[in-house]
């Protein structure tokens, strides 16, 4: 693989991760799954969202290639798609940033 191809691939993968982390529910799912696989209903209860919201967020995370569904009889549980993701999330949690509480509240960023 050429350096240019690797760069494009890495950029796309980081963009997908950034998109996933841009939503609090998706971030909560990823953080929960770094601890252990889980059923959607358990994730919904733990994160305080409806099962429909959880289903939508898990579909997004599957589409991004970050989680995978594992059939278990009539149910399906979810786990992180790559073993490197849990340590990467742990490292991100160690990053300390100064965040202005008035900046980027809601959907609009006022920092620019």
UniProtKB/TrEMBL annotation:
From the Swiss-Prot or TrEMBL record, give the protein name: ArsR family transcriptional regulator
Task: Name one process (GO BP) from the record.
Answer: response to cadmium ion
Alphabetical list of NCBIfam families matching this protein: HTH_metalloreg (NF033788)
* Single annotated GO MF: lead ion binding
Matches recorded under CDD domains: HTH_ARSR
**HTH arsR-type domain location:** 6-100
Please report a single Pfam family linked to this protein.
Answer: HTH_5
**Organism of provenance:** Agromyces aureus
